[in-house]
Amino acid sequence: MPSDKRFAQVRGMLEDAGYELVRISGSHHIFEKPGFDLVSIPVHNCKVKQVYVREVEKIVRDAEGDESS
Fold first, then answer.
1. Were 47 and a residue from 4, 9, 12, 51 both cysteine, which residue would form a disulfide, CB within 3.0 to 4.6 Å?
2. How is the chain split into domains, by residue range?
């Protein structure tokens, strides 16, 4: 099973794709990008579970695809 990824890396991926951290609610970090759905990432011990990392990777790919259209 793949290991969890550090939140700083996940945050960087989202920010590079144009998302901005707009609020933190408990352990959930909420990111926003105009024209796109909010992204909520649960963070525990500065780590993000692999399932959310894959979700972020898909979001980033989709955002890049929309920008090139």
1. 4
2. 5-68
pLDDT by residue for the chain (69 residues), tens only, comes to 467 899 999 999 999 999 999 999 999 999 999 999 999 999 999 999 999 999 999 998 987 777 665
Any idea which residue has 């990111």 for tokens?
31
| Residue 44 per-residue DSSP state | B
Long-range contacts of 50-55 (CB under 8 A, 24+ apart): 50/1, 50/2, 50/3, 50/4, 50/5, 52/10, 53/4, 53/5, 53/10
The model's pTM is: 0.86
CATH superfamily of 5-68: Hypothetical protein. (3.30.920.30)
Give the length of the chain: 69
